[in-house]
Amino acid sequence: MSEKSHKHILKTTGIIGGSQVITIAVGILRTKFVAILLGPAGFGLVGLFQSIIELIRSITSFGIDFSAVRDIAESTAEEDRKKITRTYAVVYRLTLITGLLGAFVAIVFAPVFSHFTFGDTSYSFMVGLLSVSLVADAIVGGKSALIQGMMQISKIAKVKILLSVLSLVVAVPLYYFFRLDAVVPVIILNSLMSLLLFSLYAEKIDFRAVRISLKEVFREGFGMIRLGFYTEFVTFLSMLTMYIVKVFLTGKGGVEYVGYFQAAWSFSMTYLGAVLTAMSTDFFPRLSSVNKDSEKVRGMVNDQTEMVLFLAGPIIIGMLTFMPLVIRIFYSGEFTQTVNILQWQMMGDFLKVLSWPIGMILLAKNISRTFILVEVTWLLLFLCGIYAGWDLFGLDVTGISFFVSHLIYFCVLVVVVRKSVMFRYNAGTLRFIFLYSSIAVLAFLNGVLLEGALRYVLGTGLTVLVSVISLYFLNKYVDLAGFIRKKLGLPE
C-alpha cells in the first residue's frame, strides 16, 4: 500500500472535492427552487432537453475532450512544452469543428427530435436553439482538457464554484418569471457562462499560439479521434439508452414519470458523483502517464479503490438510511415516488464506484474495443431490464434494473481486466470491498424492510460505523488530522 499515493489522491480530491462541496451546496438551493417552481413535470422537461443535447454531442464530438487529456498528460509528464502547445492547437480546432457539426445536426434534425421526444414538432424551434449550447460545450471541452491534462486542478475547482453560483443567480429568476418557458434559455446561458469562465482560466496558462493547417489537424489528431471515437461511441449508446428510457417513461406516465426518474438520476449523479468527479479529474491523467508500467497501474488502481470506498462509503450508507427525508428536503413532497427508485439505484452506485477505477485501466491502456464491449453489456442489461420488468415493478424497475445491471457489469469487468492486463486486487483491498459491501447490504435491507424510528436508529448506527471506519483508515494511511491542520493553517 502506497502512503504517498493515498496522500496524493486525498490532496487532489480535497481540492476538487472542496469545490464540489460548495457546488453541491449551491446546487441544493437551485434544485429546491426548481422543484418548487417547476415540479416533476418541469424536471422531466429539463431531463428530456438535456438528453437531446447529450445524444447529439455523443454523435458529433468524437470524445476529443476526453482523449485529449491522455495526450496532454503524457506530454506534461515528459515536460515537453512544445508538444503540449501543438497538441492543444489540434484539440482546439477539432473541438470547434465538432461543435459546429453538433449545431448543424440540432438545427437540421430539430423536427425529428421534437416528434420522437414530445410526439409532435411543436418543440422544433427550442431544439434548434440548443445548437448554441453544443458549440459552446464543445469548445469548453477542449479548454478543460488542457487544464486537466496539465494537472492544474485548482483552476477547474475555481471554475466549478463560480459556475454553480452564476447558474443559481441566473436560473432561479428566469424559472420564477417564465416557468417552463425558461428551460432552454437556462441551458444555453449555463453553456455560455461555462465557456466564458473556462476561456478566462485557460488563457492564464503560458504557451504560445501555433499555426497549423486543417490537414495537419486531422493527421496529428487522428490518434485522439480514434481513442475518442471508441469512448464516445459508448457515450452515444449510453445517451441513446437514457433517451429511450425517458421517451418510454413519457409514454407510460407523461413527463411527470420522467421527472421522478430524472430527480433520482440527478440526485445520484450530483451528490455521489461529486466523489468520482473529484477523483477522475486527477486519476485518469496520472494513470495515463504510467499506462505502460502494469505494476504501477495495479498499485494506483488498488489505492484509488480503497480511497473511493473510504470517501463514498459513508455517503452511500447515509443516503440509504435517510432517503425519504432527503428527498422531501432537497426536492418537495411531490417527489415521493423517487425514494424507491433511489434505494435500488444507490446500491447500483456502490457497484459503480467499485467498477470505476478498474474501468479506467482499459482507457488508460487504450484497450478500446474491450471497453466498448463491456459498456455495451451494461447498457443492454439496463434497458432490457426496464422493458422486461415494467409490468411487474412499474416505475421502481428503473432503479432495480440499474442495480442488477451494475452487479453483472462489475463481475464482467473484473474478469476482463484480469485476463487482458493481468490486474488483480491485493488482499487488503479485497478486505475493504467485502467490509463496505456487507454494510451497504445491511443499510439497504434496513431501508427497504423497516419503517419509522427503528429504521433511522439502525441506519444511523450503520452510518456512524462506516464513517468511523473510513476516518480511522484515512488517518492511518495519510495522517488525516495533520492533513486537515495543514489545510487550515493550524499549528502542530
Beta strand %: under 5%
Number of helices: 17
Low-confidence stretches are 13-17
Largest sheet: none
Radius of gyration: 22 Å
- Helix fraction by DSSP (H/I, runs of at least 4): over 70%
Question: How would you spell out the order of helices and strands?
Answer: HHHHHHHHHHHHHHHHH
Distance between the termini: 26 Å
* Total number of domains: 1
Q: What integer is the average pLDDT?
A: 84
Report the strand count: 0
Structure classification: mainly alpha
Reconstruct the topology from this structure.
Elements: H1 3-60, H2 64-77, H3 81-108, H4 110-118, H5 124-149, H6 153-178, H7 183-202, H8 214-220, H9 222-253, H10 255-289, H11 294-330, H12 338-364, H13 368-393, H14 397-421, H15 427-449, H16 452-478, H17 480-488
Quickly list its features.
single chain; 492 residues; mainly alpha; 17 helices
Architecture overview:
The chain is mostly helical. The chain has one domain (3-488). 87% of the residues lie in helices and 0% in strands. The chain is built from 17 helices and no strands. α5 runs parallel beside α7 (183-202), α10 (255-289) packs antiparallel against α11 and α16 (452-478) packs across α17 (480-488). The radius of gyration is 22 Å and the shape is globular. It starts with a helix and ends with a helix. Residues 13-17 have low confidence and may be disordered.
